Amino acid sequence: MTFVNKAIADAYFKKSLDENQINYQDYMSNPTILNNIMWYSVVNSDSVLKIAEFTLLKKDKPIEWRSYPIRKYLLDSCESADARMLTWFSQGFCFTQRNNDTLEVFIPKFGRGDLDKTLAKETFIFYYKLYSKNGVWMMDAQQPSSKDMKFKEAFTQLIEKIMGN
User: Which positions ≥6 away from 57 have C-beta within 8 Å?
Assistant: First the structure.
């Protein structure tokens, strides 16, 4: 059933991309956590990642694409093995932003934690920080602390999105 649902979701995502005249180089889709009814897609262009969800229960609802500037030059300018590993690991589905002396690298192919938010740090499940310490590049993985996680609210939100609300 998952293969059938993926084929249906992919057809709707690609139709939406065509209707919205969104050009892309790479495309991927996955089911969202704990189900195969709501799907998640990420497309990659030269300069922007676009991300959207689609539920099979509301096929008539327009797909809303969120955009994130890739800023590949920021990651390319970081001369570290960690930066090269993140580039390889993301398979081209990542974007970077600068926060003072730190590069924040988001790999959204694993989905979004909060489906109502758009700010990268608030919506993606985890991200990476690259920074220089005493002339050596370091990397830290960032994720919400368990005390900040609202599992009941997140599960309720997921169910509502699956139902098309």
Answer: 37, 162, 163, 164
Same domain flag for 60 and 34: yes
Whose structure tokens read 């539920």?
Answer: 55
pTM: 0.84
Q: Does residue 162 belong to any structural domain of this protein?
A: no
Q: What is the pLDDT of residues 133-146, one digit of tens each?
A: 888 889 999 876 45
In a domain, 160, yes or no: no
Tokens at residue 3, please? Answer: 């293969």
Question: CA 149 → CA 146, 153, 163, distances in Å?
Answer: 5, 9, 23
Structure token digits, residue 128: 């990476």
Taking alpha carbons only, the member of 31, 3, 28 closest to residue 14 is: 28
Q: 103 by DSSP, 3-state: which?
A: strand
